[in-house]
Design goal:
Elements: H1 15-21, H2 28-38, E1 44-50, H3 54-63, E2 66-75, E3 81-90, E4 97-98, E5 102-103
Parallel strand pairs: 2-4, 2-5
Antiparallel strand pairs: 1-3, 2-3
Amino acid sequence: PPYKKQGSGESSENDKIAMCKHEITITQDEIIEIASKKLQPNGRLCMCQKVERLVEIITKMIECKIQPKTIQFVVNTKGNPYLVLIEGVKHAKPQLKVLPNFVNEGV
């Protein structure tokens, strides 16, 4: 988290919950930019995000010299993906591995 851009979707009246769900205090781009500055070469950044934001994550990672290396989709029992787990490595060569779906049986 945060999963959603500020102003998108329903916002909680509870400030703490709203900050966890929406980009109020920090954006996804800022998280990736800061990680890129702090990571050593071959350092890893792992993120969990809504599937609809996957293209944004990959684009920003590559822009910040973090190469996406591993992706795994989290799916519900009907097989519908709703989250993506992504791992990137700073200054790595391009090569992406897609792992089998992770089925969350609680959803």
